[in-house]
């Protein structure tokens, strides 16, 4: 099999370089904080705000997962 290198665009590469600097713990705690805030808003009677905030967790966790994969790929490439 031929080893072909996929070239990322400069915009995607710039985003990956910046987001890879974000610690994984920060992403996790931000997602968890959104869930806790959502529960608090729900008990405070702010149903619409609670729904909005509850939707933060999924994108944050996906961003954390993407960063993990990107960091692992970069680490493997460096070896």
Helix/strand layout:
Layout: H1 10-19, H2 24-43, H3 47-54, H4 57-78
Helix pairs in contact: 2-3, 2-4
Strand content: under 5%
Most strands sheet: none
Number of domains: 1
**What's the average pLDDT?**
81
The SSE string, one letter per element, is HHHH
**Count of strand segments:** 0
Distance N to C terminus: 21 Å
Class derived from helix and strand content: mainly alpha
Helix content: over 70%
- The whole-angstrom Rg is 17 Å
Rough outline? elongated
Low-confidence stretches: none
Structural notes for this entry:
The protein is elongated, with a radius of gyration of 17 Å. The protein has one domain (23-78). The protein is built from 4 helices and no strands. The model has no long low-confidence stretch (mean pLDDT 81). The longest helix has 22 residues, at 57-78. With 79 residues, it is mainly alpha-helical. It starts with 9 loop residues before the first helix and ends with a helix. Helix 2 packs antiparallel against helix 3 (47-54) and helix 2 (24-43) packs antiparallel against helix 4 (57-78). It is 76% helix and 0% strand.
Brief description of this entry?
With 79 residues, this protein is mostly helical. Helix content is 76%, strand content 0%. It is elongated and about 50 Å long.
Tags for this entry?
79 residues, 4 helices, elongated
